[in-house]
Amino acid sequence: MSKSEWTVGREVAREVAGNLRLSQGRSLLALIGIVIGTAAVITMLHLGHNAREAALRQFEILGTDQVMMQPVSGNSDKPHVPLNTVVKIPEQNIGIDAVAAVVQYGTSIRFGRSQIQAIILAATDKIYTIGKVHLWQGRLTSDLDAANSFAVIGAGIASEMTASSGRPVRIGDKINVGSRVLTIIGILGDATISPILGIDFNRTIVLPFAAARRLLPSPNISNVAALLSPGADDTQTAKAVTEYFSRHMSGGMMHVRTARQLIENIDRQMGIYAALILGIGAVSLVVGGVGIMNVMLMNVMERRQEIGLRLALGARRGHIRLMFLCEALILAIAGSAGGTFLGYLTGWVFASGSGWRFEPAPLTLPVAVGMALVVGLFFGIYPAVCAARLDPAIALRGE
Questions:
Q1: What is the pTM of this model?
Q2: Alpha carbon of 330 to those of 11, 114, 292, 388: distances in Å?
Q3: Which positions, given as ranges, span the membrane (predicted)?
């Protein structure tokens, strides 16, 4: 860059800063739309990224080999899944290594004088392996317990029982479920909620599967939890499991949910939310861009004599265009910077409130810079061209 060009650039920058200070009221109004639009887009990028990362971290903890099978009614008949059909799945060599039949429902239990909301889970003994939970105290239920009224309680239930009674829960304590009395034989450690199984073991009371008949008049299998065999393809396994149950159950079909399907659903939902918020952000950016254009056009009208004088004294039309285009770009960059900061702050607050670990989305800064340049150039070029096309003689005579 030559010395003369450097001098011109410095003078243009000085003039731009001074002009923006003079019109700071209008400039501030124009910035609001840019800030809101940019903040909406940046916030959505952060939320989508952190929601997906939180889900993937759960898969990292629990693995991607869990499978949930749920009977779905195909007509007016209630689906019925025989226990023997479930137990024999690993023998079919269709990619399932372990299964657990589950009867699940929510209820309230009574411990002493306290009523506590809990999930009753009558399940075969593989549920602990599949759910990847660990025992903290006592022992686990077993299929050998038959219909005995034994119970293994989750860590959250144990904490609530301790708080309500004023003493630690002990092995052998009794809890009441309706008219039935259950004996605590084990307490689970703190567990991570599985996105596949959808079971919160912290709020669960696990019983032997056969004990469900003591609590329900006609218990039916509500879910089947399973583990994939090592190296099994989840898509092919899901298809084989569906075909297997179509031959061995009545009143409906079996819906199979795997980790890959859940991740695809998460990505699909995040895409829908992203499109919605990006649309709102685009509208806000257009409104902010129109505001910038109006500010620049008003500046051109108010400074017609100044522009005419500059042109008469030898300023090039390119310099006039550059001056007004720089003003538009500075407004857009300032609004984009403010919106990016607000988007980061909003994303962090939402992630913290949701219990997620906040991680900035990788595309945040490129998107912010890109929006600033697009808005500044698109909505600033027309006023800049109008200013450069003014006739010096007419501009100097104008009031």
A1: 0.65
A2: 16, 64, 10, 19
A3: 28-48, 270-301, 322-345, 365-388
Q: Are 334 and 376 in contact (CB under 8 A)?
A: no
- pLDDT mean by block of 10 residues, the chain; 399 residues: 52 56 62 78 80 72 80 76 90 91 91 89 92 92 92 94 90 91 94 84 94 86 90 88 88 84 77 74 74 77 76 77 78 82 87 81 77 76 79 65
186, 188, 189, 195 alpha-carbon torsion, rounded to 10°: 170
Residue the block writes with tokens 């720089």: 326
Helices (H), 205-316: 212-215, 234-248, 259-302, 304-312
Residue with tokens 């009208």: 301
Q: Which of 259, 126, 265, 125 is nearest to 194 (CA)?
A: 259
> What is the C-alpha separation between 215 and 363, in angstroms, rounded?
54
**Structural tokens at position 56:** 């993937």
Is residue 27 packed enough to be buried (19+ CB in 10 Å), middle (13-18) or exposed (0-12)? buried
